[in-house]
Amino acid sequence: METDAGRSAPHSRMDPIYRSALNREVLAARPAEFASLRVGAIAVWPPVVLAPMAGVTNPPFRTLCRRYGVGLYVSEMITARALVEGNRKTLLMASFDAEETTRSLQLYGVDPFYVGEAVRLLVGEGRVDHLDLNFGCPVRKVTSRGGGAAIPVKPRLLRSIVRSAVAAAGDIPVTIKFRMGIDEQILTYLDAGRIGEEEGCAAVGLHARTAAQLYDGEACWDAIARLKQAVKTIPVLGNGDIWEAEDALRMMRTTRCDGVIVGRGCLGRPWLFRDLADVFDGREAADPPGLGGVIEVMLEHARLLVEWLGDEGSAMRAFRKHTSWYTKGFRGGAPLRQRLMQVTRLADLRAALADVDRAQPFPPDAVRVPRGKSAGRQKVALPAGYLDDLEDDTPPGIEAEAADSGG
Question: Could you tell me what percent of the chain has a pLDDT over 70?
Fold first, then answer.
């Protein structure tokens, strides 16, 4: 079966026939085939970026992923106005672990003034080495107020926000991430890419779905290829359906994009970054860990989260969603997940995992099991009369900053 941009139907990682064919494909992927991704002065190898995900890509998760392989690891999204106003929770979300030598943060804002002030604060205090701006949030409460994925519909507003951020950032590289558009009838990604290029962005990233799709169906890699053809002077990054390392090779070969953004594929699978480092360096990706190895990763993740938050109860509540992703596909996973959803302390987590069959191998069918958001399609809500004047550059109200999705 063929899909868009020449993608072939995936096989199981542990299928011997697939492994034989995969070996030939991977060994053909020498480093010379792909250049290091340049984000301003930052060289990124392999050319892989962790997608910002709300409630997920905090310092503990970034630390865990980074230990598997180098790349660029972006923080969960913070809002510009809340940062400028000194919101305590926002300041914590904008923090970085001591191990993070390249501090990459995603900022969301709808008003050029507050975006500029937030960037000046972050750069002036030496908090960041890279800034990404979010223009892809598809959440109804955001788009219905003119924010998130609705902003690229108004190119003058988009341009004003990007221009303000780039001017305030100075030598710190700014990138932008967006979706294909509102739906199949209102596509904005080519204009958004050109605006990013014209206003001095260091790169642009496309989640190859519309806001109407949310996370449903297949990402349209053909759109990434079209964006790459339209944006000539800065890197183009592709996002969507990178479930295993070989997907990244296929995306870059078929679209000619300069790097990939990995989101849901690493949920419960942080070792994906090890696999990505391997295949981009021309080595075969290792098999995923068995259940025993997965449990050790879970325990380390939970420990890091407790250290970061300093509150065991809060940390374990935040960790519960990860337990579902880590255990998806394993035999006996459903009752185990029920127990794991009750944990309130690290000791509870260890006890819930104590009698599990650690010898279980990783299930082949679980490699590509969807994880994270998958709510189907939606009719995108926009403010009344929003499409009447696309040249309007009036910023939406503060309500549009209530974003909770990386897009």
Answer: 90
Average pLDDT over residues 120-136: 94
**Strand pairing category for 236-239 and 203-207:** parallel
Identify the three-state secondary structure at position 64.
Answer: helix
Q: Which residues are catalytic?
A: 137
Joined together, the tokens standing for residue 147 give 């924010």
Write down the H helix ranges in 42-143: 59-66, 80-84, 88-93, 112-124, 140-143
- Domain 36-287+395-401 sits in CATH 3.40.190.10: no
Q: If you compute the radius of gyration of the chain from its CA atoms, what whole number of angstroms results?
A: 21
Q: What is the pLDDT of residue 195?
A: 98
Output the CA torsion sign for 390, 158, 237, 366. negative
Residue written as token pair 């999705």: 405
Spell out the residues 6+ positions from residue 29 whose beta carbon is closer than 8 angstroms to its own.
Answer: 249, 279, 280, 282
pTM, 2 dp: 0.89
For residues 325 and 299, give the distance between their C-alpha atoms in angstroms, rounded to a whole number.
14
Q: Where are the beta strands (DSSP E) in 27-186?
A: 37-39, 42-44, 48-50, 72-73, 78-79, 104-108, 130-135, 174-179
Mean pLDDT value across the chain = 89
Per the CB < 8 A criterion, the answer to whether 211 and 134 are in contact is no
Residue 4 neighbours by CB under 8 Å, 6+ apart: 218, 220, 221, 222
pLDDT reported for residue 358: 94
pLDDT band of 29, cuts 50, 70, 90: very low
Q: From residue 31, how far is each of 35, 36, 156, 254 by CA, in Å?
A: 7, 9, 40, 17
Kindly report the backbone phi and psi dihedral angles of residue 3, in degrees, each rounded to the nearest multiple of 5, phi listed first. -115, -175
Every domain of the chain and the residues it spans = 36-287+395-401, 291-359
pLDDT band of 211, cuts 50, 70, 90? very high
Give ∠ CA 146-152-158 in degrees, rounded to 5.
90
Q: Which of 163, 91, 99, 161 is nearest to 127 (CA)?
A: 91
Candidates 363, 314, 371, 364; CA nearest to 343 is 314
Q: Which residues contact 286 (CB under 8 A, 6 or more apart)?
A: 274, 275, 278
